[in-house]
Design goal:
Layout: H1 7-32, H2 52-71, H3 85-101, E1 114-116, E2 125-127, H4 128-153, H5 160-163
Antiparallel strand pairs: 1-2
Helix pairs in contact: 1-2, 1-3, 1-4, 2-3, 2-4
Length: 168
């Protein structure tokens, strides 16, 4: 499978913009209801699912780490889950800056490069093009959509346009 791997850099950057927008909307909603913006980070869809802070951490980490893997670069350090809202927003800005530093040439000829990723009970190996376009991006959007779902579940007035706030 031949894929223009560099296109995912822009896709992930837009997703980070959406996450930033969603966190802002959630914080505004909490403040309008007399709560604190910190409260939103512990919101969940249901008790046995990870909270918004986890979803934000995963989106930010995936956005910078997975293109790095596809390009054969050193994988940037993960951020922690215990950040406050300002920390998550700073991490989003840092991740977007990292993505902006990547060049198309770094991805050239890497479509078939094998990527092995530990998923706990198994370690699949896929060509970079298949891995990034199917597995990695599906997971990225799962966690971004879950963040959106958590906020909607709590009553934040957002709709489908907010899921594309980072751009089309």
């Amino acid at each position: 499978m031949t894929v223009c791997l560099f296109t995912f850099v822009d896709l992930y950057s837009k997703g980070l913009g959406t996450l930033d927008h969603l966190l802002t909307k959630g914080a505004e909603f909490a403040r309008s209801r007399g709560g604190s913006e910190a409260d939103i980070l512990d919101w969940r869809l249901i008790d046995d699912m990870n909270p918004l802070r986890f979803q934000a951490m995963v989106v930010i980490n995936f956005a910078k780490q997975w293109p790095a893997r596809a390009a054969g670069l050193s994988v940037p350090e993960a951020i922690a889950e215990d950040l406050d809202l300002a920390g998550f927003k700073a991490a989003i800005a840092e991740a977007k800056a990292y993505l902006a530093s990547l060049k198309a040439e770094q991805f050239e000829g890497r479509d078939q490069a094998p990527i092995t990723f530990n998923l706990g009970q198994f370690e699949p190996t896929l060509p970079a093009g298949q891995w990034l376009s199917s597995f990695a991006t599906t997971n990225f959007y799962f966690h971004l959509s879950t963040a959106y779902g958590i906020l909607r579940h709590k009553g934040v007035q957002i709709g489908k346009p907010d899921l594309f706030a980072g751009g089309l």
